[in-house]
Amino acid sequence: MNAPGAAPDDGGMTSNEPSVVVAGGGSAGHVEPALATADAVRRLRPDARVTALGTERGLDTRLIPARGYPLELIPPVPLPRKPNLDLAKLPLRVVRSVRRTRAVLREVGADVVVGFGGYVSLPAYLAAASMRLPIVVHEANARAGVANKVGARFARAVCAAVPGSGLAGAEVIGIPLRREITELDRAGLRAQARAHFGLDPQGPVLLVFGGSQGARSLNEAVSAAVPALTAAGVSVLHAHGPKNTPAVGITGVEALSSSHPPYHPVPYLERMDLAYAAADVALCRAGAMTVAEVSTVGLPAIYVPLPHGNGEQALNARPVVDAGGGMLVADAELTGETVSSLVTGLVGDPDRLAATAAAARRSGHAGADETLAATVLEAAGASVSGRTRT
Questions:
Q1: Do 326 and 280 contact (CB within 8 A), yes or no?
Q2: Of 43, 193, 349, 354, which is the most buried if we count CB atoms within 10 A?
Q3: For the chain, percent of residues with pLDDT exceeding 70
Q4: Do 134 and 5 form a contact (C-beta atoms < 8 A)?
């Protein structure tokens, strides 16, 4: 394998237009930062050619073309967590995927590869390194995965969402987010957002969501808290998940006038921007993307980390909580009484609510997309201010 950083040895096309390849396929947590970075690259260099690597798994074939980027499919390389038959098949899968990725990089005349972890990043890093192409790594989670640990060994630059990712020398920049979130005017959209969901235009609103499929413990706690919340004048916008049916006592639903229902359950939130604008406080999990979005829009939050895994979600939320932008509650300690007490205590103190919102916004990283895009273009040897290569 040749050392990364030298000129490509596989016939990359010569052009004044930088060719950027983003590798972030698989889950939305990988795809969305990749697309936000791609958008920022195009803003900084409108002549840039951006190609996305992805797989037929997950959301790649739906999300990436919809955003206007060419998608090149490569064989996925899932990394088994335990010794099994898949582990024995791993070397052959890597070889096949790297071979296909090298072909894509040659076809698009890649100048730089930026990876975000996930199924496609490992073959992207290995292919780019073998072709001596510059590599940029972004780690969204509090603890880096195997793919990014490998990629960081070859990378020209390494960026991370939060401190302590485990990647040596990583620059903490936050997570690249779409402009609809980073430029969201919550106050300006408040009336429209509340009308959209049929919420009380004046009183405080609690937003509850647990990811696209919902979260059972959040659903149960909120259902138990609704009577106390509505009695205190707090409306609830509750995204409970398409397969879940919330169980809410009728006393809670009757607490306010029927013209502005205090409890508004929905299976899924199509417009997260309006949900953020409608809310005064959020109750949510602490996935990397959730923490990044909620803090960037300046929404005070009660974070309830997923109780499984390696404790990563608590680490995702810790910088925001330490800055005063939210609270952490263990999943096992989440009850209806806890929810109602924390929410009413926060919304009942306007000064505290405003201070928490300001702290949340300060802890966010609204410019992460352009920070990473500039790093990527610099690694490619491309000028950001002009339209000529350096």
A1: no
A2: 193
A3: 86
A4: yes
Residues 6+ apart with CB under 8 A from 22: 34, 35, 37, 38, 50, 51, 52, 53, 69, 113, 114, 115, 116
Category of 282 on φ-ψ map: left (φ > 0), alpha (ψ -120 to 50) or beta: beta
Tokens (6 digits) for 150: 């490998």
Around Cβ 251, how many Cβ atoms within 10 Å? 12
Determine the pLDDT at residue 319.
95
Residues 144 and 295: their CA atoms lie apart, in Å, by: 21
Residue ranges, CATH 3.40.50.2000, the chain? 19-179+367-379, 184-363
Residue 294 — pLDDT band, cuts 50, 70, 90? very high
DSSP state string for 71-133: EEE-------SSSSHHHHHHHHHHHHHHHHHHHHHHHTT-SEEEE-SSTTHHHHHHHHHHTT-
- Residue 289 has what pLDDT? 94
Helix axes 146-154, 121-130, angle to 10 degrees: 20
**How far is Cα 318 from Cα 327, in angstroms, rounded to an integer?**
9
Pairing of strands 71-73, 281-284: unpaired
DSSP helix, strand, coil percent of the chain (3-state; round to 5): 45, 15, 40
Residue of 192, 189, 250, 240 whose CA lies nearest to 217: 240
Q: How far apart are CA 162 and CA 319, in angstroms?
A: 8
Q: Which residue has the tokens 């195009």?
A: 42
Per-residue pLDDT at 243: 77
Can you identify the CATH homologous superfamily of domain 184-363?
Glycogen Phosphorylase B; (3.40.50.2000)
Give the pLDDT score at 8: 43
Asked if 26 and 55 count as a contact pair (C-beta separation under 8 A), the reply is yes
CATH code: domain 19-179+367-379 is: 3.40.50.2000
Helices 336-347 and 216-231, packing angle to 10 deg: 50
Q: Which of 152-156, 255-259, 350-354, 370-374 has the lowest mean pLDDT?
A: 255-259
